[in-house]
Amino acid sequence: MADRDQPFHVDVALVHYPVYNKNREVIGSAVTNLDIHDIARAGRTFGIGAYYIVTPYQDQQKLVGEIVGHWQDGYGAAYNSDRQEALNTVKICDDLQSLYDLVCRDGNKPLVVATSAKEQGKGLSYGDLQQRIFKGEHVLLLFGTGWGLTEDALADVDAMLPPVCGHGDYNHLSVRSAVSIVLDRLLGRT
Amino acid sequence: MADRDQPFHVDVALVHYPVYNKNREVIGSAVTNLDIHDIARAGRTFGIGAYYIVTPYQDQQKLVGEIVGHWQDGYGAAYNSDRQEALNTVKICDDLQSLYDLVCRDGNKPLVVATSAKEQGKGLSYGDLQQRIFKGEHVLLLFGTGWGLTEDALADVDAMLPPVCGHGDYNHLSVRSAVSIVLDRLLGRT
């Protein structure tokens, strides 16, 4: 059993490129307002460090900046300070390489762990990852939008969590639900 | 440990009235598109029976019907049959009384369990509720939108699950995240 009172360092990245579309073509997906809010709120609830939004598109980055700014410095900050606190974790970066450069700033590369709705290689259980987190290992969780991270992107990660399963083989969760469940499994207290 | 292979009967209701707003006034909140989709997808993933959307407003009920219809019979049904399957669980009802009448059709009232971001009386643990679910008890989970179900609404429920907590005392999850986490805690498999 992991000692949940230990400090931990978990970051989350929501990747909009490179991901697959429905027809398994490599695309850049659109940033959505509720992905920013819901994942920032879940991240803050579970005590993550940073929530990276990865998109190469300048207009999408500008949109993220405007939304976050509204709740950090604009009308939203006074209207709902809880939301401000959640959105303070949001950082924007261009692509996976700049994400990895950012999180390795201090010279220590985190354990990069992806999640997938499909069973993949490099499997790591929730229990084992939880142990490593509460022993102090820095972990970066990658979540793909659209129909998931590309094979090339997954080739570079260190480990893969098993798909979130319920009853039967239907597991078409929204990425917002998947992030919430994965953070709860790793960091939640019941 | 609950026997997860037993059949179970869990329904979910997302309540838009009566709930509190930010100033603790009793309001009817607006239905949102992503609440319909995300919770239907999570519900289908975890094998719930029905997903009730409770709102007294006819225009909101019409909107829900149109959104669900698009994915059941319209263009969406052909475009994404997984989404169709999730949205097939959606039912609309006017208020809590008609919800209770609907779920008691066969004469057996389910255990009505609410969730709240705040600690309340009538506490029931996730483990105990899971045991009851997999022993065959019919359970209806109520989730409030806005700033949560009113005290009057909570007075009528049978039990309350503890708030979803992570690290520290920040627990301002979206209702989409809260439903996903609660269903995973009760019905998920790791």
Mind explaining what this structure looks like?
The structure is a homodimer of 190-residue chains. By secondary structure, the first copy, chain A, is of the alpha/beta class. Chain A has a single domain, classed as Alpha/beta knot (3-Layer(aba) Sandwich). In chain A, 40% of the residues lie in helices and 17% in strands. Chain A contains eight helices and eight strands; from the N terminus they run βββαβαααβαβαβαβα. Chain A has a six-stranded parallel β-sheet, sandwiched between helices. A two-stranded antiparallel sheet of chain A has the order 2-3. In chain A, strand 6, helix 6 and strand 7 form a beta-alpha-beta unit. In chain A, helix 1 crosses helix 4 and helix 1 runs parallel beside helix 8. At the A-B interface, helix 1, helix 4 and helix 8 of A face helix 1, helix 4 and helix 8 of B.
Question: What's the short version?
Answer:
The first copy, chain A, is α/β, with parallel strands linked by helices. Chain A is 40% helix and 17% strand.
Total beta strand runs of chain A:
8
**Assigned CATH superfamily of chain A:** SPOUT methyltransferase, trefoil knot domain
- The third-level CATH topology of chain A is Alpha/beta knot
Low-confidence stretches of chain A are none
Mean of residue pLDDT values of chain A = 91
What is the approximate shape of chain A? globular
Taken in chain order, the helices and strands of chain A follow as EEEHEHHHEHEHEHEH
- Architecture of chain A, according to CATH? 3-Layer(aba) Sandwich
Q: Find the biggest chain interface.
A: A-B, 41 and 41 residues
- How many domains, in number, for the residues of chain A? 1
The helix content of chain A, as a percent range, equals 40-55%
Strand order of the largest sheet of chain A: 5-4-1-7-6-8
Q: How far is it from the N-terminal to the C-terminal residue of chain A, by CA?
A: 14 Å
Portion in strands of chain A: 15-25%
Helix and strand composition category of chain A: alpha/beta
